[in-house]
Design goal:
Layout: H1 7-12, H2 16-27, H3 36-65, H4 72-89, H5 94-119
Helix pairs in contact: 3-4, 4-5
C-alpha cells in the first residue's frame, strides 16, 4: 500500500501511478482530481505546485510586459485558456505547454526584430 500521508509525499508528491493506486485503495476507483492545481499538488507535492505557480507568474509578467505587441491578444487568450483549463479540466498536457511556450516566444522574436530595425 502507498503511504499517502508521509512527509515525502506532501513535499515531493506521490507521482501519477502511485496516486492512482492510492485512490483505488481508498476510494475503490482510479479517478483523480479534475482540478489541475489539486492534481499538481497530489502528484508533485509542494515543490511541484510551487514550480507551477512560478511558471504561471512568469507567463503573467511576460504578458504584462508586452501589452503593445501584436501578439498580446493571442497570447492573452491562450493564458486565460490555460488558467481555465487548470481550474476545470485538470492535468497538464505536454503539447499544450509547448504550444503556449512557442506562442510566448513570439514576444521575444518581435522584441529582437524591433531592436534590429532600430539599428538599421
Amino acid at each position: 500500500m502507498v503511504a499517502c500521508s508521509s512527509t515525502g509525499a506532501i513535499i515531493l508528491g506521490l507521482g501519477q501511478k502511485s496516486l492512482q493506486e492510492a485512490t483505488v485503495c481508498v476510494l475503490g476507483t482510479g479517478f483523480v482530481s479534475h482540478t489541475g492545481f489539486v492534481a499538481s499538488f497530489s502528484e508533485n507535492g509542494i515543490v511541484g505546485t510551487f514550480l507551477l505557480f512560478i511558471f504561471i507568474y512568469y507567463l503573467y509578467t511576460e504578458l504584462n510586459k508586452n501589452k503593445k505587441s501584436k501578439y498580446f491578444v493571442n497570447n492573452g487568450s491562450f493564458f486565460i485558456a490555460y488558467i481555465v483549463f487548470l481550474l476545470f479540466q485538470g492535468g497538464n498536457y505536454f503539447y499544450f505547454d509547448i504550444f503556449l511556450a512557442l506562442n510566448y516566444s513570439l514576444f521575444k522574436v518581435e522584441n529582437i526584430a524591433s531592436k534590429l530595425n532600430k539599428v538599421n
